[in-house]
Amino acid sequence: MTEKVAVLGAGSWGSILANLLAENGHDVMLWSHKEEQVRQLNEEHVNPRYIKDFTYSTALKATSDMKSAVAGADVVLVVVPTKAIREVGGRLGQLLNELGQKSLIVHATKGLEQQTYKRPSEMLAEEIQPENRSGIVVLSGPSHAEDVARRDLTSVTAACNDVAGAEKVQQLFSNDYFRVYTNDDVIGAEFGAALKNIIAIGAGIINGLGYHDNAKAALITRGLTEIRRLGVAFGANPFTFIGLSGVGDLIVTATSVNSRNWRAGNQLGQGKSLKEVMDDMGMVIEGVYTTKAAYELSRQRNVSMPITEAIYQVLYEGANVKTAINGLMQREVTSEVE
Predict the structure, then answer these.
(1) For 29, which of 41, 220, 253, 313 is 20 to 30 Å away at the CA?
(2) What is the pLDDT of residues 142-177, one digit of tens each?
């Protein structure tokens, strides 16, 4: 069954998900606030700033008018950086109210809001009135846009408090190379998605410092323990963290050069300053902001997160990266299950 879908956000992930949906036979309108990007997508079927050497489906249409994208959409997929969720969600909520429309809201954003520490679904729920949304679904899992573009086999999770919403997203996205599983643990899916970016920065630092597989495996494994601890403190199901939106997303983000967070950590490990790294990246590095939010949350909830604390010290207190990593090894020894 063909659905009308609006995709808000034409970065690498948003544009590739929009392309996937168009190739699945859905009526897709991709929104961007950048006129030149819209022109390139519509006329040349390319998005070179984000995905090089890829030609998008001619069925995919782009617009800079959010209202025309959203009007009549059965599903609205939001794929913008965490810091833009409030603004975009607020505009979306106003438009849906103005149109008298009720859509299923899906997001693929991975982070936590600064100061409030709210998850993307919580922000969207505050910005979009209940009468204008049939549900909020989280789409998360091990999925680099570059790999999906080349049709690499990919599996992700659709999480929603109402399983019917997750099942609709499952049917919308699934095809012979993109498989979607359902889950009802929104909290776990969102904490897994956000916090793995912190550990990915740490894994990049390890690589930049010249450490090898043993060190990377230890960091990723103990990092997963930290993610689970904080998520469970907020009511997440611990089993979610051994699934696709937990360990799956962590593995792909903490081991791949396609990960901005890993690349940022790698450059930090090689001696670059945070400003140099961010200037060089040219795109949002979600883990930098999530580190601050998670560190502050862990202090509030008295949750032990030594890796997160060490990375926070590097990013926000100017700590030497090698000293910070070595400090993790010199902590008092303890049980693995604590």
Answers:
(1) 253
(2) 999 999 999 999 999 999 999 999 999 999 999 999
Which of 115, 121, 156, 139 lies closest to 5, judged by CA?
Answer: 139
Token readout for 304 is 């032990």
Same domain, yes or no: 141 and 83: yes
Single out the catalytic residue among 196, 216, 275, 292. 196
State the Cα–Cα distance between residues 30 and 11, nearest whole angstrom: 10
Domain of 50, CATH number, reads 3.40.50.720
User: Is 337 inside a domain boundary?
Assistant: no
Give yes or no for a contact between 305 and 229, defined as CB atoms under 8 angstroms apart.
yes
Q: What is the pLDDT of residues 289-326, one digit of tens each?
A: 999 999 999 999 999 999 999 999 999 999 999 999 99
Could you read off the pLDDT of 231-274 as tens digits, one per residue? 999 999 999 999 999 999 999 999 999 999 999 999 999 999 99
Sort strands 61-63 and 27-31 into parallel, antiparallel or unpaired: parallel
Nearest Cα residue to 92 out of 135, 63, 129? 129
**Do 87 and 161 share a structural domain?**
yes
Structural domain of residue 306, as residue ranges? 195-329
Indicate whether 79 and 144 sit together in one domain: yes
Say what the pTM is. Answer: 0.95
Choose the final residue of a domain: 184, 219, 234: 184
Starting at the earlier edge strand, list the strands of the sheet with 154-159: 61-63, 27-31, 4-8, 75-78, 103-107, 133-140, 154-159, 178-183
Is 196 annotated in the active site?
yes
